Automatic annotation (TrEMBL):
One of its GO terms (molecular function) is MAP-kinase scaffold activity. PANTHER family: A-KINASE ANCHOR PROTEIN 13, AGAP007712-PA. GO terms for cellular component: actin cytoskeleton; membrane. It comes from the Eukaryota. This is AKP13 protein. The lineage of its organism: Eukaryota, Metazoa, Chordata, Craniata, Vertebrata. InterPro entries: Ankyrin_rpt-contain_sf, Rho_GEF. GO terms for biological process: adrenergic receptor signaling pathway; positive regulation of canonical NF-kappaB signal transduction; regulation of Rho protein signal transduction.
Length: 248
């Protein structure tokens, strides 16, 4: 998701300013509806939605005008493909509880990627995680781990906090085992909370220690999402377009 899509209108589709265009993406289990903004009389822009799987979906360009029925202007196919962020999220989700794999990820910390790269990684991997089909029994600590076991071990929460990934940490906190992971020590005796404090990640430490901490809008400069049951509404600030996603 979050790529810019440009729609070129034909001469006969260039109509009055009171016509509103939007795109409808219909997948096998999820449907998205995005608003558009007009760049000029012949071009529209919108943002591609994050999808729940890699597949080819049907996308329809619709036109709406007050007092008139909705018109389907054009239809086309659109393919969602797997990228590096999706691969990374899938790898991390699969390796929850796998000590060998989680210890391997610590080499990223030694390479110290620039802050801009970390922010980009955080935005993209957290977005991919939100659209992964996680098993019902999935747990931040791994499906075979018990919250009562007081065994030093590396966790996904350690990984996210060590790199300062705010959005991914927020996502993991909402998942089963997320809060339990905060009190687990790794082999160096560090908890995710002590790691955040040690590295000077003030916002991250605040997120982990305040019971009523919420995700501030300012953490994501690109977009803000509100979830409600099987629906979510996303506002992309850059283009000022909205996206409604619903499970079909």
């Amino acid at each position: 998701g979050d790529s810019v899509i440009t729609v070129q209108l034909t001469e006969e589709d260039k109509v009055e300013d009171d016509v509103v265009f939007y795109l409808v993406f219909t997948g096998s289990t999820v449907q998205h509806c995005t608003s558009t903004r007009k760049i000029n009389p012949g071009s529209l822009e919108t943002i591609s939605p994050g999808h729940d799987c890699c597949e080819t979906v049907k996308v329809a360009l619709c036109a709406s005008r007050e007092g008139h029925p909705v018109l389907v202007v054009a239809e086309e196919s659109f393919q969602f493909v797997q990228d590096e962020a999706y691969d990374a999220a899938q790898f991390l989700a699969t390796c929850a509880g796998n000590q060998q794999a989680l210890n391997f990820t610590r080499f990223l910390d030694r390479s110290r990627p620039p802050a801009a790269d970390v922010d980009f990684l955080d935005e993209k991997v957290a977005l991919a995680f939100r659209h992964l089909k996680l098993p019902a029994e999935w747990n931040v600590l791994g499906v075979d781990q018990s919250l009562t076991e007081n065994i030093p071990r590396e966790t996904l929460m350690h990984f996210a906090v060590r790199l300062g990934l705010l959005r991914l940490t927020w996502f993991l906190l909402q998942q089963p085992g997320g809060r339990g992971a905060l009190s687990i020590h790794n082999n160096e005796g560090a908890t995710p909370v002590s790691l955040a404090l040690e590295r000077g990640y003030q916002k991250l430490h605040q997120l982990l220690t305040e019971e009523e901490a919420r995700e501030p809008d300012s953490w994501s400069t690109l977009s803000h999402t509100v979830h409600s049951g099987d629906y979510s509404v996303k506002h992309h600030r850059g283009l000022d377009v909205y996206m409604l996603t619903a499970e079909t």
